[in-house]
């Protein structure tokens, strides 16, 4: 005999602890038939930064005169990182050079320069303003997350302070997009990220009430289903099925309880209540802890981390003696500004180093979790403060099982608008093709390439391993 | 025919298909007939010998379940839609086709795999209902109706609902006046994701076909959480919103009161804790303080005279702003204002501040920053404070007595030796917070009566109705359960979330009530009718009069419907945002005061907003700020449609054939005229002067009086130091004059009133480059201050650049897309999907026009079968390029044909940056067929000729009416809607082409009023 609804309501508040109402775009992340071609999930971390990356700061100090000349003239070439020294700011990753690619020559004109790129640099389109209508497609991180489903599907964290006006904490709107005209949410401070991602083991009461709400809705909608048939039944049954699937997801996360506890990061109390007094390096470190914990616990396989935007305060970086801002650094071309750029990236690289070493310490298969991880450290707007967008130096860290053949190298691809050049769209197509999405071309076309009638669709085939080429 | 197939795999296949279907079909007599039909008409091209289109019907048994069903579905579709056998082949009789259709339907339904019926409900299949039958009158006797239905809300209704729930008001600009607008998705401080987005395409976008899915729920989970927190933590606490959810406010009053008390105590103590402690602890106070440790600072920076000269030093007001930002100004100011410190040196003042901040427990890095600023600016700051008449010493004001007692008790309880003041304050606050929480727990959940009233209130706010008795009981239990676990605030949040997440929120409901008539139809319930009418015309819930009519029984008859629909159509006191993307601070309001869904019908029907999504190359456009120009183009297309609808005469014909357009005009004629006249006045005044050789004195002395009477950006004789990045005042004057002379030296009656030079942002109306779409070079523009006005080489919306760009590619025109649009939207024709075996690419040929390249790929037997329905219509628009610019020649944009490279923009907005290439003459001839009118069908000279004929076609009128039917009814028409469509056409003709009359006719039709239960 069914439980009377009143009784049902009274009892279900004590349901299983889980993710409960944590929002998610999992519905958009259903794995396509082509997914799951690898036994283990591959993980991606996109670290996006503002202010562009100045090409000369990515140059290797040990370049020969000829290499230096080619680099300055933006000619295509590549060298083996094992035989070279890294720039000072990148030295933290010295011990991981075999996993590193300094990738040069990809243009971002498809997403554009300017002060901010919003969702554009992840979706390979010009976002213009930060309005929903301008979100043209699911961003590449969401596309990758579809290939490797997980309880959260996709996690976005951010230290952006849009236009320097808004000190953000809690859950706020993000830059990635699960679908056209949709905006992701993101965690704006490490404590919130920690509390939300690991809620299933840290806040049992809240989760239980969320489950009660789901149960009630499920009961209510199922009640509505009675007596409905045909098309009208479909109108409601989708909702019932969705409620059931969220309950299933919660149950799966509940089953992960022990793993989650094992990887539960400890966050310093300074980050409580938005962490007003936390220093920027402390915030960065805490976010890194959360990201590594979430990946290791299997809560997500894709993370997008806006490590700064032009408004992010950097007055608490120890190197910042003049208490300058990222925006001011971007406009300054003097030695002081260049040094500050180096300092900012040094802090970023320190976090990437932590991610790499920590993931290398988590066993997986016959190796480590990092074997199945790719970290992309990229500028959001190209090669300068707000221009040019014709190049966008980035650093890629990829593990042993990467389906991209590019590790251990400094690669400079042909320059923008010339034969053989690759755009951000080609780069993302490469990532997607490599990991199981056969899309012919992801992202917008470059109008200069189009005007010059140059081929510009498809992946960067030289980066695809034989496996990935299929 | 097909003798060679006797006893072949086809029979075995059919035997297999029939065998698996036999228990369900039970129609063995049909089977042999079906086999004969297939055998006769299909197998020759889709059997062992030939597999046209890669489709083979004789090997179905080898396919697995889904693959087999896919083929059967595909066959079902081409059989039903008459697309197979091909025209030139032998055709089955109607009975044979019906036999095959029925059989395929039964087989597919038996497997639960029938897709055709659902597919035919989609907008793109609307035209498959026979046009002649719909308008012939032969079916006018069939009773019209719509099925009972739940209709998923649209993205616009979602926005409107959320704005209503959150009590949001937005303002916009309507013809130069600030007005309150509805619509748009702006909710300040809250970012909601809209899960009800409509497909982006031209035509009718909003249909009642969609179901609620997991996608909606997941997005709504996030929305519901954000909304509930926003309601309880922001709106309900807002003292200016007393009218908003008063009962909920009452439920949360204790919690709000506690929070307010905590906030007051915190604010008081953060400011006054030192004074309070000195008073409370007296002489002991000093001993309780921690030992002072000076802040470590870098060496004081001395500015050299050179640096000061070069302005390396921050201006004092900026430095003051930084000190404020670092949280140090208030204390510093009070220290300076204290008469006891008047004689103190700068260093002593800094020292005092440092100690205050240290004992207070301020964040060390903040203190460092403050001290660094004070080191450099303390004397300047002291001077500023001395000069600031508003700077006053703040008197210490204790809280009221009972509060002070609580504060004192807390401080006594928690203060330990060595604590900084803020540490003590935090301990006190944590203690008080816990104490309050306990008090609330002791108070228990809200009384049932109060909780019930709150549930009523939230139901009305969110679901726009009161709960039924059983529902009220259930929700009461739920609220109690939530409160016990989480406390009142979170319980209220959970309740709000529950209501937002119900399917009732997401569906509009349209059900018939009462006794069915002889056709089994029932009238819409009055409440559902009120919503159906409101949502047909606007995105908002019914207005008060409509609701009142529903509640008082005055929404029952056709006349009642007519009265309300007419009333709403005539309303001009509600302002609607047309497109959020076009309405922001850089642009104008993009606002209309006519019921928004009338305008939106044509907006979506023509599909010109897609222009905003097509990225174009600025170099090819000829100038920068293309985004701004494109926004203006679309907004002006909107206003052109609104203008035609406002006149409401011969609406369809006018939209298709008007020669008057709006180009760079915001609707405020007075303003546009005034600015144009002013520029002309400047020109007249200076044209005979040697202004190219002016010196600064010419501006500041000789012509100063005149210049004071006109607005020339940055040119002000009383501010001769004025400059921008583009130059100083004299340079900008000359730059402006060159621009003015350029726009007047072709005998222009009126100069275009755009900015005098290209500066940062816009001085006048943004989007001036919109002129380029219309072939107006900025330095050669004969401007019309009164608009709409005639534009040469244009006729109707299909020659409007917004439509042309929306139906073009990034770098080329698209005759196929344009032709398809006309065939489907204006001629009620059909075009099958591109066969999957076709790689639809226009071949490259550097020495041919696009038309010729397209012809080489499509004008063969196989492709032409479909392309003949599109290309000849689309070719007529080759007189415009992919930016919609009129042309007689087509540029061959390949490197080998480059004649002259265009200049860079470099900040000069009059420069045309286009490269010049060799050209070939454009051929814009085409052919119109399918109007059913021999006087219209035939060869056309160009797009103007085509537009003229389309405007005169009855078929076109009927096709637009069919789309209007779909738009307002949310579904495809059926033969039983024949009467509704005939009457709509009659209403249009009888009213001399009023679209209002069409809308009234549709919304008072049987198709709209009557509902039938779904036959399952």
Describe the structure using short key phrases:
heterodimer, A: 470 residues, alpha/beta, 8-stranded mixed sheet, 12 strands, 11% strand, B: 1016 residues, mainly alpha, 4-stranded mixed sheet, 44 helices, 51% helix
Short synopsis of the structure:
The complex is a heterodimer of chains A (470) and B (1016). Chain A has helices spanning 5-11, 65-72, 120-123, 140-147, 190-197, 199-202, 204-225, 230-255, 257-263, 280-296, 326-331, 335-360, 424-434, 447-451, 466-469, and strands at residues 43-49, 77-80, 100-104, 155-158, 171-173, 185-187, 302-306, 363-364, 367-368, 373-379, 394-398, 409-412.
Tell me the layout of helices and strands.
The complex is a heterodimer of chains A (470) and B (1016).
Chain A lengths: L4 H7 L31 E7 L15 H8 L4 E4 L19 E5 L15 H4 L16 H8 L7 E4 L12 E3 L11 E3 L2 H8 L1 H4 L1 H22 L4 H26 L1 H7 L16 H17 L5 E5 L19 H6 L3 H26 L2 E2 L2 E2 L4 E7 L14 E5 L10 E4 L11 H11 L12 H5 L14 H4 L1
Parallel strand pairs in A: 1-7, 1-10, 3-12, 4-7
Antiparallel strand pairs in A: 2-12, 3-11, 5-6, 8-9, 10-11
Helix pairs in contact in A: 1-7, 5-10, 7-8, 10-12
Chain B lengths: L8 H17 L2 H14 L23 H16 L13 H17 L5 H5 L10 H6 L9 E2 L1 E4 L2 H11 L4 E5 L2 E6 L31 H22 L10 H6 L1 H29 L2 H5 L16 H5 L6 H10 L3 H9 L8 H15 L3 H24 L13 H14 L6 H23 L4 H15 L6 H18 L1 H14 L1 H4 E4 L1 E2 L8 E3 L1 H12 L6 H8 L6 H13 L4 E3 L13 E2 L3 H11 L11 H4 L4 H22 L3 H7 L2 E2 L7 H18 L9 H7 L1 H6 L13 E2 L2 E2 H16 L25 H4 L15 E2 L10 H6 L8 H12 L23 H9 L2 H7 L3 H5 L13 E3 L6 E3 L15 E2 L1 E3 L4 E3 L9 E3 L2 H9 L2 H16 L8 H13 L4 H9 L2 H4 E3 L4
Parallel strand pairs in B: 1-20, 4-8
Antiparallel strand pairs in B: 2-5, 3-4, 6-7, 7-20, 8-9, 10-13, 11-12, 14-17, 15-16, 18-19
How many domains of chain A?
2
* Strand order across the largest sheet of chain A: 2-12-3-11-10-1-7-4
Radius of gyration of chain A: 23 Å
Number of helices of chain B: 44
- Percent helix among the residues of chain B? 40-55%
Model description:
The complex is a heterodimer of chains A (470) and B (1016). Chain A is built from 15 helices and twelve strands. Chain A has helices at residues 5-11, 65-72, 120-123, 140-147, 190-197, 199-202, 204-225, 230-255, 257-263, 280-296, 326-331, 335-360, 424-434, 447-451, 466-469, and strands at 43-49, 77-80, 100-104, 155-158, 171-173, 185-187, 302-306, 363-364, 367-368, 373-379, 394-398, 409-412. Chain A has an eight-stranded mixed sheet, sandwiched between helices. Among the domains of chain B are: 3-120; 227-258 and 443-507, no CATH class; 274-435, no CATH class; 661-790, no CATH class. The relative contact order of chain B is 0.09. The model of chain B is unreliable at 1-26 (pLDDT under 50).
